[in-house]
Description:
Blueprint: H1 9-16, H2 20-28, H3 43-50, H4 53-61
Helix pairs in contact: 1-2, 3-4
Amino acid sequence: MKMPPVDHQRLLNACHSEDPTAMARELHSYDELDKRDDLGRTLLMCMCEHGSDSMVKGLLHHKADAGLRDNSGVDAADT
Length: 79
């Protein structure tokens, strides 16, 4: 069964505001790190494009899949 798309914007906003409480709250809502938004992007892809290095390292440490590609064929390393 296909999962509905997720919106990564709230977590990205928390990261940009450097609010650790908001970041923890938003990350807690991710029961699977590789959920995709409507463009097929994972949280790791969005963090590579808009987030911090520490968030990217943390996602990789927690086994986010860096090899996945979005609907356009782009992976996290391409962003």
